[in-house]
Amino acid sequence: MAKKTSGSSKSQSPKGKTQKQHKPFKKEAKAVKTSRSQSGRDGHNKTWTRTKSKNSKASNTEDRVGTRLNKYIAKSGVCSRREADTYIASGLVTVNNKVINTMGYMVQPGDEVKFDGRRLQQDPPAYILLNKPKSVASTTSESKGLTVMDLIANATKARVAPVGRLGRNATGLFLFTNDDRLMQKLHKKGLPRLFHVELGKNLKNEDLIKIKEGLNLGGREITVEEISYVVNASKKEVGIRIKNMGSSVIRELFEHLGHNVVRVDCVALAHLTKKDLPRGRYRHLTDDEISLFSML
Question: Tell me, what CATH number does 68's domain have?
Fold first, then answer.
């Protein structure tokens, strides 16, 4: 059987502009081309080439912000944030042996925080990658049935939280951490994720071009970093790279163009892939994988 191709080298858009040939997208483990990391020392693979940030000044603002005092107390396991506010107002909390009763006080790295005379110790940083199966809710709510938190319950004693969302019926890579700085950075800048999407019918080339050029959905301008047909598959299957914290936007994009989304699978998350990580299993990130987040 002859191999299917993604189309001719050039196509004409509705605006009359000549479009470049769409890069092919490969299924599962072949979904992302890998190469030696920039360090070249550990052989760690990365998923795509990054460009230098325009603003290359040394430390970013997140490094100077710190952690809100009530959040710091809550993460130490003493109480909830709301209860922490009450204790702070009552003068039961000190930072560097000074009573702090100011709401919104920011704890800096190296500060000694005490509650009622007892020094508080936060959990060490934890980074966990899960290959989420279908029919599992990506929430911390116990009322939602089986959740992603249940799947990583034995991974760490640290109070980690999910980064972003994946729909209950979506599958693929899902990240958890208790690293506030990384969490804030990803929510601010977005998290590059590569999805393998299967539709109920073939995606026309003109619709693929519309998505690539950007669509306005309910007043929101939705842009994708890359989209192409899956190699050696029907035009019902596409690969789409988007810097977004949720997967619902993908369904919105295709449903806006009259397509029913059959399957959504996150095959790559930033520089992380599903290699050697079966569905429903998790693993801890290596030091090298953690350090690569600084390049985002």
Answer: 3.10.290.10
The Cα–Cα gap between 238 and 195 comes to 8
Considering the domain boundaries, does residue 10 fall inside one?
no
Which residues form the domain of 139? 124-188+277-295
CA distances in angstroms from 275 to 17, 89, 196, 260, listed in the order given: 38, 49, 15, 29
Asked if residue 172 and residue 220 are part of one domain, the reply reads no
Domains: count for the chain: 3
pTM of model > 0.70: no
Q: Tell me the two tokens of residue 219.
A: 């007043």
Task: Give the pLDDT of the chain (296 residues) as one tens digit per residue.
Answer: 444 444 444 444 444 445 555 556 665 544 444 344 444 444 444 334 343 344 434 334 444 478 899 988 887 777 888 899 999 999 999 999 999 998 889 998 878 899 988 888 777 889 999 999 999 998 776 666 899 999 999 999 888 889 988 989 999 999 999 887 888 889 888 899 999 999 999 999 999 999 999 998 888 888 899 999 999 999 999 999 998 767 688 999 999 999 999 999 999 999 999 999 999 999 999 999 999 998 88
For residue 259, which of 296, 221, 215, 220 has the smallest C-alpha distance? Answer: 215
Regarding whether 238 and 97 lie in a shared domain, the answer is: no
User: Is 28 within the bounds of a domain?
Assistant: no
What does the angle CA 121 – CA 124 – CA 127 come to, to the nearest 5 degrees? Answer: 150
